[in-house]
Amino acid sequence: LTIGVIVALVIGIASQFIPSTVMPFLTSVLIVAGIVIGFFNIHPNEAKDYVVLVTALVIVTSLSENILGGVQVIGPYLEGILRNILAFVLPSGVIVAVRSILNLARD
After folding, report:
1. The pLDDT of residue 47 is above 80
2. Which is more confidently placed, 69 or 13?
3. How far apart are the C-alpha atoms of 104 and 88, rounded to whole Å?
């Protein structure tokens, strides 16, 4: 998980310099990595906390999107960082949430 967040951070910082034709591929890689993390790296004991933290991240990212763009010099970098971290973390959060729902239904 930590490596994925670091990669998302680097892609977010470099997103201003990466050609627009390459960004969809990199975002797809982050999404697939997030799905893999959701299936294999989050233990059921961690699921509740993880889903709450992912939900908080989604809320903060969506509320801060227009604000960060207005920040001079570093605003676009901050937006890129949050956008790429979200692309990595959100799929894993969905997978963990669905797994938790299925586990609850099973009990």
Report:
1. yes
2. 13
3. 25
Burial classification of residue 106, based on how many CB atoms lie within 10 Å of its CB (0-12 exposed, 13-18 middle, 19 or more buried):
exposed
Give yes or no for residue 34 having a pLDDT over 90: yes
Sign of CA dihedral 64, 69, 73, 79: positive
**Residue 31: band (very low, low, confident or very high) from pLDDT cuts 50, 70, 90:** very high
Position 74: which residue type?
I
DSSP E strands in 5-105: the ranges are: none
With H, G, I as helix, E, B as strand and everything else as coil, classify residue 16: coil
Q: What token pair was written down for 6?
A: 């670091």
How do residues 17-29 score in pLDDT, each as one tens digit?
889 899 999 999 9
Smallest CA-to-CA distance from 102 within 32, 52, 41, 39 is with: 39
> How many Cβ atoms from other residues are within 10 Å of residue 28's Cβ?
11
In order, the DSSP letters of 47-103 are: HHHHHHHHHHHHHHHHHHHHHHHTSTTTHHHHHHHHHHHHHHHHHHHHHHHHHHHHH
